[in-house]
Amino acid sequence: MNVQDNYQQRIHEIRQQLAVLKRKKSYFAWARLLNISLIILTWYYWPELNVYTVSITLLLLIVFVRLIYADLANRSAIGHHERLLQINEDETKALNGEFYQFPNGAAYLPKEHPYAADMDIVGHASLFQFMNRTVSEPGAGKLSEWLLNAADAPTILNRQESVKELKEKMPFRQNLQAYGKEYPITNLSVQRLQAWLHEKPAFPENSHWKWLRYLLPAIAIIICIGTMADWFPMNVFYLALVVFGSIAFQLNKKIAPVHDRLSKMAAQFETLSVSIRSIEARKLSVSLTEKFTG
Predict the structure, then answer these.
(1) What is the sign of the dihedral through the CA atoms of 48, 51, 56 and 59?
(2) Distance between CA 216 and CA 222 in Å, rounded?
(3) Distance CA 275, CA 281 (A)
(4) What's the pLDDT score for residue 106?
(5) pTM of the entire structure?
């Protein structure tokens, strides 16, 4: 099978998988509607509060939550397969001489370089655009660095061996590429991650914080239950509200700045996490690729 047929077969397989996933999306929607209808009917025919109605309702709510999580996973799979489809369609265009769908790396063209401009290393219709399948700013920067700076013979041979190994792993390569396309990692996100890793902890590293995270919720639950059971007067409940509100306010002043910074990188963290798990799950033999799994 030649390369063109290989990509066409991949496109056909991915479209079939997409069709199945989209049918499942419809099934999940109908299942959620049925689930809600059963909850409404349960309370319509048995409006009195008893162990049966509560048990049935809780069971249906558990099923509803499971359906939501299954639907979210299915939607994620649909997005992943759509990106895989785009990757293979782009490669089909490349086989026909169309490379302009890939970034050309013009931003990496140095003002002065002995051969970059003459040999079209980066820029429009360049070697970079012909080779580039990176999906992150650090990856594109690394590729341009390799092309613009000559390596020694052992390094070149080692890279060629890595290419030979990865050439036989098309599904792995394309899945990794599709993961990166969802939320591309930028240089700014890498800088933010490095800055966060070098920050001092927001909370002191002692045992007090460890047991407080269990003790405070336990006290709050006891006070709520005790108030409902008339074990404590309402004044105790109101005092607890003030105390816990003050504690939450103080904790929020420490947590909110960290949360705001990390929330801006959460999507990129997910991309990085999924990509690392995918790489670690592979058995790579060449030393250059082993650097990612060692």
Answers:
(1) positive
(2) 10
(3) 10
(4) 92
(5) 0.80
